[in-house]
């Protein structure tokens, strides 16, 4: 039988629940045979779209859909310079769509094609954030009653801006010693997040490492006193503290037995992880900001992390991700693919195919899909009893309602949509 060829490639922008999503659809020359992939880089959607439409599409039209690896390798070097978030996200949409087509042609769910299930479903973690320990605890209680067993906990630091919460930052000194001045507190006022239909990237406010670490440690103490150790808690530092303070923090929280501590350092400070490994057994997760194999390979090779937090579309799709997962297995490192709101349900379906088929699965992040998002993506992975369940449909098992997707065009955003600018009390920039 003649192998299907790539006939057309479409990029679909949609924002059903205030997060910009990018979907790729590969249409073959075989009637009714098409595939979907996620290319979501929510802060920079346009360059991803142009990279696909202006470069990958002309390069790929007419190619045999069977040859995923050859298409991936030749596309990867077709730009000569490589390993960046824009080109990798563009390539991911193509790659995931080809795997979706492969599953449809084999009439198999993708996890079966990748070796079959190593578990019935993938345990997920959800986000409990709040302005106080009690509020975080109450949200945890609600999630526990829904059957979740792994919960990421983030609490606001009074007077400062905290990742996972948007407390207004007055820069009020909460170090406990009223006389300590934190330097000239720059005026950061909160602009409306949404005004006249436009979205505004509000300033990220003021972040100070010591007040943040104190409030996080107080939160863990509170949670362990209220819930004990029978529930798994996770925490995301989001790369915001100076590295040596991160080393101290990882040691200080060891007694709270976190499931993992995430983004303790920025990728640029990877070498600090060696210090952490020799001083504490706090489980470490890192990877959502990696877009090159050169970043993750040393972390696995030297067992500097316990969980691979890679954003699959940011590394180039399923093809590279499954190789990284295999390397992780050989070194005792588990997967914890990035699964934020700015991974589309198609991307979550790709995560899930690997979660189910990889022996060294660790945990799957799950940012609860909004109702509009669920409508746009029929077949989205179901979550119940704290687990994400795949359906038995071939390929990724998910669709996109293109007509409905069009009803959610990208909103206009100030400066095109930037990630928050977070500053120290002296006004210097913080990696956000
Ligand atoms: C997480 C991540 C996200 C990112 C977001 C960036 O652990 O889920 O840190 O919250 O900040 O995906 O766009
Ligand atoms: Mg994170």
Task: Please characterize this protein's 3D structure.
With 432 residues, the chain is of the alpha/beta class. The protein has 2 domains: 6-107, Enolase-like, domain 1; 122-173 and 206-400, Enolase-like C-terminal domain (TIM Barrel). It has 14 helices and 18 strands. The strands form 4 sheets. Strands 4, 5, 9, 10, 11, 12, 13, 14, 15 and 16 form a 10-stranded mixed β-sheet that branches. It has a 3-stranded antiparallel β-sheet with strand order 1-2-3. Strands 8-17-18 form a 3-stranded mixed β-sheet, with no helix packed on it. Strand 6 and strand 7 form a beta hairpin. The longest helix has 22 residues, at 85-106. It is globular and about 65 Å long. The N and C termini lie far apart (52 Å). Residues 167-180 and 182-193 have low confidence and may be disordered. Magnesium ion binds next to loops.
Short synopsis of the structure:
This protein is of the alpha/beta class and 432 residues long.
Question: Would you identify the CATH architecture of the largest domain?
Answer: Alpha-Beta Barrel
User: What's the story with the biggest beta sheet?
Assistant: 10 strands, mixed
SSE class: alpha/beta
Ligands bound here?
D-gluconic acid, magnesium ion
Strand content: 15-25%
Secondary structure: helix percent: 25-40%
Tally of domains: 2
């Amino acid at each position: 039988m003649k192998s299907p060829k790539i006939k057309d490639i479409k990029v679909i922008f949609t924002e059903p629940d205030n997060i910009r999503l990018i979907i790729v659809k590969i249409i073959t020359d075989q009637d009714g045979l098409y595939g979907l992939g996620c290319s979501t880089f929510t802060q920079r959607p346009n360059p991803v779209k142009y990279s696909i439409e202006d470069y990958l599409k002309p390069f790929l039209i007419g190619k045999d859909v069977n040859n995923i690896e050859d298409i991936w390798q030749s596309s990867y070097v077709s730009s000569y310079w490589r390993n960046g978030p824009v080109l990798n996200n563009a390539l991911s949409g193509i790659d995931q769509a080809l795997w979706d087509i492969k599953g449809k042609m084999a009439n198999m769910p993708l996890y079966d094609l990748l070796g079959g299930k190593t578990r019935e479903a993938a345990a997920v973690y959800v986000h409990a954030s709040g302005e106080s320990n009690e509020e975080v605890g109450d949200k945890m209680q609600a999630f526990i009653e829904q059957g979740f067993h792994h919960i990421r906990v983030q609490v606001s630091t009074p007077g400062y801006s905290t990742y996972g919460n948007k407390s207004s930052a007055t820069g009020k000194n909460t170090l406990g010693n009223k006389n300590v001045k934190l330097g000239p507190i720059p005026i950061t006022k909160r602009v409306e997040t949404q005004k006249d239909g436009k979205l505004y990237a509000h300033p990220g406010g003021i972040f100070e490492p010591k007040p943040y670490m104190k409030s996080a440690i107080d939160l863990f103490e509170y949670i362990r006193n209220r819930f004990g150790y029978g529930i798994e808690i996770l925490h995301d530092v989001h790369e915001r503290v100076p590295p040596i303070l991160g080393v101290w923090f990882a040691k200080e929280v060891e007694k709270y037995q976190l499931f993992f501590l995430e983004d303790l350092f920025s990728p640029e400070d990877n070498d600090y992880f060696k210090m952490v490994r020799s001083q504490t057994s706090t489980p470490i997760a890192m990877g959502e900001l990696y877009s090159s194999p050169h970043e993750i390979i040393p972390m696995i090779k030297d067992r500097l992390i316990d969980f691979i937090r890679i954003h699959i579309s940011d590394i180039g799709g399923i093809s590279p991700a499954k190789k990284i997962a295999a390397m992780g297995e050989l070194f005792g490192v588990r997967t914890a693919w990035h699964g934020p709101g700015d991974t589309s349900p198609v991307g979550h379906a790709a995560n899930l195919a690997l979660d189910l088929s990889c022996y060294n699965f660790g945990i799957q992040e799950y940012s609860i899909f909004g109702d509009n998002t669920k409508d746009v993506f029929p077949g989205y992975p179901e979550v119940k009893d704290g687990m994400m369940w795949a359906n038995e449909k071939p390929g990724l098992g998910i669709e996109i309602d293109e007509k409905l997707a069009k009803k959610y065009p990208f909103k206009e955003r100030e400066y095109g949509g930037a990630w928050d600018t977070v500053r120290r009390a002296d006004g210097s920039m913080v990696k956000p």
